[in-house]
Amino acid sequence: MYPNIRIAFTHTPIHGCTRVDKNKVIEALEKSNDEYASYYIQGLNSGEMVTIVENQYEKTWANNGELYFRS
Fold this sequence. Notes:
single chain; alpha+beta; three-stranded antiparallel sheet; 5 strands; 27% helix; globular
């Protein structure tokens, strides 16, 4: 499993990321006692959310007209 998996909404474009298989994340969430686990499971299964990892070669992040630089 990837060490830095993030769950993101699919309605907002994100650059510099790679989509990864959601099944292991769902398995971990099903075993979790987190109160929001069912929310994430539902979002991943419906396609409203996706599991991603950031590409390490990116030097900047951009989101909705804003620009972030690594220092």
